[in-house]
Amino acid sequence: GFEGNAAFLFNRYVALDFNFALSQNKILNFIDFVDEYDADWNYLGQKETNLGTTDISFSPDVIAGLNLRITPINHLDIVFQEKYVGRQYIDNTSTLSRSLDPYFISNVNINYEWKQSLFKNLNFNLSINNIFNSEYCSNAWVYKALVGGSEYIENGYFPQAGINIIFGVVVEI
């Protein structure tokens, strides 16, 4: 694989940083083991299938991130975040029907540090996550078996929140 990152400070008001990882994460000579049951779900053993070289589950070929930080006035930061995650397989079989689609999400974070004499530090934070309300799943599970000679598959997905807002105050005494 190959990873990289860079940061640019254009002036005291604007900064840009990005990172990425390009990789191929493989299992050589992967043997898939599947539980086998009769039609009444009585366990019969396991069936082995040599699938050759496959992708490691939850190992996307591409991950990338970008942050644009704008500081319009002292003590106020506005950060635009972009994140891309490539296709991920939810098991080690490299089966497209058991994979998570690539996704791209955008967030905005606003932080204001209020200088005053009452507290050592007083910060206000506002995070607006998934600002384009993208529908995506970042994790999943799969169960596969042979039941009465037929393949039985359950895929479970963990959809992520649509647009959501988090506000916080940090007080340091």
Provide a descriptive summary of the structure in words.
With 173 residues, the chain is mostly beta strands. The chain has no helices and 13 strands.
Strand ordering within the main sheet: 1-2-5-6-9-10-13
Low-pLDDT parts are none
E-strand count: 13
Structural class based on helices, strands and sheet pairing: mainly beta
Strand content: over 45%
Radius of gyration, in Å, reads: 23 Å
Share of helix, binned = under 10%
Shape: elongated
The biggest beta sheet is recorded as: 7 strands, antiparallel
Number of discrete helical segments: 0
Averaged pLDDT, please? 95
Order of SSEs: EEEEEEEEEEEEE
Oligomer: single chain
Distance between the termini: 46 Å
State the main characteristics.
7-stranded antiparallel beta sheet, 173 residues, 4-stranded mixed beta sheet, single chain, mainly beta, 13 strands
